[in-house]
Amino acid sequence: MSTIALRLAVLAAFVALLWVVQAVNWLLGYALTPLFGLVPRHLYGLDGIVGMPLLHGSFGHLMSNTPPLLVMGGLLAATATRALAAVNAVIVGLGGALTWLFATPAIHIGASGLVFGWFGFLLARGLIDRSPVTLGAAALVGALYGAMIWGVLPGSVGISWEGHLFGFLAGCAAAWLVRTHVHAPRMREVERR
């Protein structure tokens, strides 16, 4: 199995896990939400930094996060190297910590912070690396999901715009802090041999 195929399989397994967690949470009357959701500035809500991306408020909520998770996750799988774990750790850890520190009092849940983190990472990495592959990925993400940038502003009641904002900022930080290499340069090296 190629590296990209393995990464795509991990992405598919992660999205499938989100659906399993949602089904279990629904069957339990959403009992997992207060247990593992992020509650700002409360110690019992600190585990929500990791739990927040796994929980959703409804099947519709998860359905709205699934396509961008697959598209942006697929672009990450196709263009990034071994740094994916570090990129995701920065997005989830920093984005979640900032949400825990500064968000409004509520139970914050959903993978949209991760979606916005990947969005910020892909855009910022294109500008930082300026390789044809990363610029192409940034342009594609910008064309497909550019309008979602408005999700970082306060808007609809019940939507954690703070999770979106801090996820986006964490993704930008990850692009600057974690240097990733695209597959294209290695492919060119192989062709020269």
Describe this protein's structure.
This protein is mainly alpha-helical and 193 residues long. The chain has 9 helices and no strands. The longest helix has 25 residues, at 3-27. The chain has a single domain (3-192), classed as Up-down Bundle (Rhomboid-like fold), CATH 1.20.1540.10. The protein is globular and about 45 Å long. Helix content is 69%, strand content 0%. It comes from Hasllibacter halocynthiae. One of its GO terms (cellular component) is membrane. Its main location: membrane. Residues 49-179 form the Peptidase S54 rhomboid domain.
Spell out the key features of this protein.
single chain, disordered C terminus, Rhomboid-like fold, 193 residues, globular, mainly alpha
Topology of helices and strands:
Layout: H1 3-27, H2 32-36, H3 48-51, H4 59-79, H5 84-102, H6 112-129, H7 132-145, H8 161-177, H9 183-192
Helix pairs in contact: 1-4, 4-6, 4-7, 5-6, 5-8, 6-7, 6-8
Protein name: Membrane associated rhomboid family serine protease
GO molecular function, one term: serine-type endopeptidase activity
Keywords: Hydrolase, Membrane, Protease, Transmembrane, Transmembrane helix
Q: What class, by secondary structure content?
A: mainly alpha
CATH topology heading? Rhomboid-like fold
Percent range for β-strand residues: under 5%
Look at the structure and give the CATH class. Answer: Mainly Alpha
